[in-house]
What we know:
This protein is of the alpha/beta class and about 450 residues long. The chain has helices at about 5-15, 25-45, 45-50, 65, 75-80, 115-130, 150-160, 175-185, 195-200, 205, 220-230, 345-350, 385-395, 435-440, and strands spanning about 95, 110, 135-140, 165, 190, 210-215, 235-240, 250, 260, 265-270, 285-290, 300-310, 325, 335, 340-345, 360-365, 370-375, 405-410, 430. It has two domains: about 1-330, ANL, N-terminal domain (Rossmann fold, 3-Layer(aba) Sandwich); about 335-440, ANL, C-terminal domain (GMP Synthetase, Chain A, domain 3, 2-Layer Sandwich), CATH 3.30.300.30. The strands form five sheets. The protein has an eight-stranded mixed beta sheet with strand order 4-3-5-6-7-8-9-13, with helices on both faces. Strand 17 (about 370-375), helix 13 (about 385-395) and strand 18 form a beta-alpha-beta unit. Helix 6 (about 115-130) crosses helix 7 (about 150-160).
Amino acid sequence: MKKNKTPMEDWIVKRTGLISANQKSLSTYQFKKLVEVFEYAKANGAFYQKQFVDQDLREIKSWDDFKLLPFTTGADIKKNPFSFLCIPQQQVDRIVTLNTSGTSGKKKRLFFTEEDLLKTVDFFDYGMRSLTDSSDRVLVLLPGQAYGTIGDLLKKALARSNTTCIVFGLLTDLDAVAQVILRNRINCIVGIPIQVLYLSRSKAECFKQIEKVLLSTDYVPKSMVAELSHKFRCRVFNHYGMTEMGYGGGVECEALNGYHLREGDLYLEIIDPDSGSPIEDGKYGEIVFTSLKRIAMPLIRYRTGDIGAFSTDLCPCGTFLRTLKKVAGRYANRIRLDHDNYIDLSTFEESLLGDENILDYQVLIKNNSVLSIMVNFYNQNRLDQKISRVKEILVAHLSVNKKDNVRIEVEQGNLCKPDQMVNSMVKRRIIDLRKEECNG
């Protein structure tokens, strides 16, 4: 069945003023904007004045020249976020303080003008047209009560196409959400993967009316997509983005084959995480982006820590836009136990969340030879059997178990309410007690 072309293509062509709708013309446009943002950031931001002290605008004549520029990291922002500001602070309309996975230390602060936020509304408007139209009724299970939050921007975007949108916020009350779904005839949900999965398993009767789901903010397990698709016959779309990008980065089209990016506003690269060198399309590496039009806080060659790759094939929808394969996790969650053994959070996501008895789980590394898995089940019936089943699943999926020097401990967790499950936008992670003991 032929797929409709992503609405992102016409939007990008129109916004960039491309004479020809092809990758060559877009690449020329992006390079022009990269040179402009380099000049703007160096002239107006203290961080980039220092970062590019040895670089001259006249030396950036090609993509190869651009890819020699130093990277920006999250640690740079934490150290002094105000040094990234390129406008007076009183002109900032939205400040976002990111909750990190740690409990101490400096936090990232990100700054936006109203114009920066409206660019995201534009992206959400056309990105959502891949899955919704004015006949749909959308429930957003993301923060949205305050100005400039992701839910607020989504609601403004959907209003442009006269699509009904109700912003509930994060999942804290299953019964209340179920009532909203039934009362408002909701047929599309936007939310955090683990929360949407919990809702579908706990309120299956009302979830049966959901036709489309857009998952965002964290890794989306293939096992979860398969469950929602087969059990409820939902079409499950993925969105890739982060607050540093201005929330939105890319979204899947009807082909459900990877993300089409907001290439008029962002330029993405894939690099080798160790050497920093470019990686060819088709191979996985670290995603790096440059914001092309940000006013308050442009970021140049920002290392996301996310694992991704560009597809070498054209999307079945027929667009000339590049397709970013579905993000495969984060390098921070690919952790070495000893010289031979690694574990990756995505392995736990795929294996454990595919078991419908499990509500949530947490992985702790106690030392190089002990993995502690705290598992929260939907009910306490036959607990010993369920714990044994979890051990079997992990033995089957974790390569570390091929060696006898790694022991897996599985215990019942103490998570008992949905509002204790994921009550923030913090990405899920493996807790490495070895590091925390050293830092403490």
